[in-house]
């Protein structure tokens, strides 16, 4: 009778380490050889692949570049469009430089006329930087908090967050304060944006995923761009830009669970009340396999 092979965790770990290095080298190679627009398109393609990016170290590089690498010259306006994405036409055919995820993005920064965030040139490429004034404690800039921060709502959300990501009480509380400071620092510099329930989960998930792989200032810059560009429609005081999505959620409820939809309508919680906004915002942090049938 043949001897059963024993499972060696160290062998599996070494295999994973090698695979991680191969993937990081592949990202580095593509970054160094493709023009910036083509590289960013490749990054988006990798994110859509079945199985995803597999390793947080790879996510740190690709997520950072998708959020912070500017696909056009630094003089181009980065005003978000109504859909919350960068406006402007890409006319930069330069190569994407190789920048390690663990290195701070720094250099000769130039102010952007539309925000208090600056851009920095690294090896000929342009990156967005974090807001220039640091968040220190209870206020964003040393003065009274702006009404857009909605501190009471944020505190309530923070207190019930990160349970499944950080089982240790001490570490969880430290991370909660970090998530709060990230949100407050970004909102204190963007009065046109508002905190809504659910954004804390997105920021917390990003910090959990890439926080160990990027410097703090890079993390701040990533959150700033995430809120001001990709989630712009869900942070704006005027919610008309996302009403179509909210009506879509209600329509899906009427099809899949008409009883719940009828109950919500009876309680006057239709799509116009924006009750489903946290559902839409936090969908980014949920995994279908973990949902009930």
UniProtKB/TrEMBL annotation:
Keyword Methyltransferase: no
GO (cellular component) term, any one: endoplasmic reticulum membrane
InterPro entries the UniProt entry points to: Rab-GAP-TBC_dom, Rab-GAP_TBC_sf, TBC20/Gyp8-like
GO MF, any single term: GTPase activator activity
Protein's organism: Bodo saltans (Flagellated protozoan)
Keywords in alphabetical order: GTPase activation
Record-linked Pfam families: RabGAP-TBC (PF00566)
GO biological process, any: endoplasmic reticulum to Golgi vesicle-mediated transport
Stated name of the protein: GTPase activating protein of Rab-like GTPase, putative
Keyword Chaperone: no
Entry-linked PROSITE patterns: TBC_RABGAP (PS50086)
Highest taxon listed in the record's lineage: Eukaryota
Domain Rab-GAP TBC: 53-293
